[in-house]
Amino acid sequence: MSEAEQVPVEDFLARRKANPKAIVIDVRDDDKWKEGHIPGAIHIEKSKVAEEIAAKVTDKNVEIFCHCGGGTSGPRAAALLNELGYKNAKAIKGGFRSYKASGEKIV
Asked: Domains in the chain and their CATH numbers?
């Protein structure tokens, strides 16, 4: 599996603001998702990404940002999406931890 691009949280925030159609995929488990997540994120547990992505994201050209809790599973999920034909899948460097540290809204 190839490496996926990882973008710092500041870049993610700027890119998401510039492209409101960008998709955020949270690959953490259900318990972590329920504790809080990025507004507008889609929840797909890391073990289910390959089987659920086509039904949840049909446009393979849309910009996608994957994240996990700390930065390991998010890049793996983004690399998997790239292998499945998604052209713009990236990971948020440092995962949800870095997003939370940015002070941005959590739902």
From this structure: 6-101 (3.40.250.10)
